[in-house]
Design a protein that fits this description.
about 25% helix, 6-stranded antiparallel beta sheet, alpha+beta, about 30% strand
């Protein structure tokens, strides 16, 4: 069956950003130490103060490191039927369709978030800053609701999409989706445009990459494309091998960007927080740090236990952080 169809907020980029690797690594290391130490080692007023300091520091470096950021939706606004772009210039504000619900507190990773139902999604327009070619990163925190691996009631769960890389004719753009139809567990329709055409990017996709999600758990999902090579990350760790893309056409200037949908129409169910798009391929080290930063926020608001926090750090390859904090 074929479909028809980055709180501690710092980031690091490849050399395209204009910063040296040493500068970026120093910034990331300091942020990780401050945030992790604050939320795990301390308690009470002292922990709150240290966490606040780490957030201030993170915000300061964020302004200088996000040179390649194209858009950012934190979902902290609660402004009726519009989700504001907190970074893009000009702004890529998103209109509500089907009434997503504003949430806050323990229901979110950091600040506010949006809850998507069976018939809701966002249309974020076709702004110039969303016309990205050559290199891109898309990241989001998601929490599924109603995912089913046994009842054959799955769906194509879309995080975000711009373009239509799914036709026999030459196609363009990108989709960030998880295919759970017929109890599937794959990312074939996280796909990218191909000038030679073909369904699901004509092979420009993460076919064969599988993952089983749990309803009610937060996950950090990211894909990067750079030099015609695509990588998929879940919870700070690369899933599968690097994918070499052919005849890549990443830019699609004719179609809008959607969040929670792949081409206009509902697709995602659950909560979503902090969606970011960059015109650069983030490094593996900073994607891991982005994940840890979100875990820090979840732990600080007691949305996860310390034991679960440490378990997830270890699973993402961050055992050294655990050792330092103990």
């Amino acid at each position: 069956m074929f479909c028809k169809f980055t709180q501690n907020k710092s980031a690091d980029f490849s050399r395209e950003s204009g910063f040296t690797i040493i500068e970026l690594l120093v910034a990331i290391t300091i942020i990780g130490i401050l945030a992790g130490f604050a939320v795990v080692n301390l308690s009470g007023a002292t922990a709150s103060a240290q966490l606040a300091k780490s957030k201030v520091f993170s915000s300061t470096v964020r302004s200088s490191l996000l040179a390649s950021a194209s858009a950012e939706w934190l979902f902290d606004d609660s402004l009726g039927a519009v989700a504001l772009d907190n970074w893009g210039n000009p702004k890529n504000n998103c209109s509500f369709f089907g009434s997503p619900v504003w949430k806050s507190g323990i229901d979110c990773v950091d600040g506010g978030c949006l809850q998507f139902g069976a018939s809701s999604y966002l249309n974020c327009g076709n702004g110039k800053s969303l016309d990205i070619n050559g290199a891109i990163t898309v990241e989001a925190w998601i929490k599924f609701s109603g995912i089913d691996y046994s009842g054959s009631t799955g769906r194509l769960w879309a995080i975000a999409a711009k373009g239509y890389p799914d036709s026999t004719a030459p196609n363009k753009g990108w989709w960030f989706t998880y295919d759970n139809r017929n109890n599937g567990k794959g990312f074939t329709y996280t796909c990218f445009g191909n000038s030679a055409g073909g369904y699901a990017g004509g092979g420009n996709n993460f076919g064969g990459y599988t993952y089983t999600f749990t309803n009610g758990d937060w996950y950090h999902l990211t894909f990067t494309v750079g030099s015609s090579r695509a990588k998929l990350y879940i919870n700070g760790k690369q899933l599968g091998a690097t994918k070499l893309l052919s005849n890549l056409v990443l830019s699609d200037t004719s179609r809008n960007l959607f969040i929670g949908s792949y081409s206009g129409g509902p697709s995602f169910q659950g909560n979503m927080d902090t969606v970011r798009i960059y015109s650069a391929a983030l490094t593996a080290s900073v994607i891991s740090q982005r994940y840890v930063a979100g875990l820090d926020q979840l732990l600080a608001k007691r949305a996860i236990t310390k034991e679960n926090y440490q378990k997830r750090l270890a699973e993402s390859g961050q055992a050294s952080i655990i050792a330092r904090q103990d």
